[in-house]
Amino acid sequence: MSPDYRPPQVPPVDQVGVEERAAKFAARSIKRESKVSGLERIVSMIDLTTLEGNDTPGKVRMLCRKARRPLGERDCPSVAAICVYPSMVPVAREALEGTDIHIASVASYFPSGQASLDERTDDIEDAVSAGADEIDIVINRGAFLSGDYERVHDEIVAFKKAAGDAHLKVILETGELETFDNVRLASQIAIEAGADFIKTSTGKIKPAATMPVVLVMLQTIRDHYLKTGERIGMKPAGGIRTAKGALKYLAMVKETVGDPWLSPDLFRFGASSLLNDVLMQLEKQRTGRYHSERYLSIS
Fold this sequence. Notes:
alpha/beta; 8-stranded parallel β-sheet
């Protein structure tokens, strides 16, 4: 443990103000001329994800083909990353060889984190050794909710060390944190402990990403940047299934932290079902006709 650790002092969250501000983004309409560029940007920000017990090498290879060319031979950006369990990292690494698509792996005994610290750091090291260049871990929610913020901080520090040169995405599992004040505090602890990204959810707990929660996390990132000049990434995950909804998140990002975050280097969507809706909407904007989902691969 850190002998002199003091939890960060964070401002209280104005719940009414946050919810009102988020509601304005939720009601925002996007002009038609901006939609194509926005939809293409969303594709480039997606961490295309499969985290199921029945994942197979064949399923992961299919996902990687879709990641490389989401619309087949038609022009479309590739996604930002493929996110898989550690055992599937070598499969994804081979399938994506020669591309700029990142290999992300959940680790540290995702999603519960119910294992010893040594076991969790070993899990991270194994994923990195297998070829992952991004690691998604979950904070210790039991420690956080019991007020043991030092343990939460020190575990993230250990995870960051285990990840080495790989980017560390720290999942708060906001659906279990109960209050916006807790989300704000957990975000700041993760940032100070070395997170490269903070992320809302595993996708296994409801509610997952919500606009008010994402706004609180973006405000934490903004305030940290204004204080230190350091840019931390943001990843909402779980529950974002439509292009229309994703575009509203882009508006929130632009108006809260600014244009530098409108890049896959600093903003991602954790999604498995979002991509097909974005592709259908992209074809609609380009051709004037909806492209049936049956012409798009499931994975």
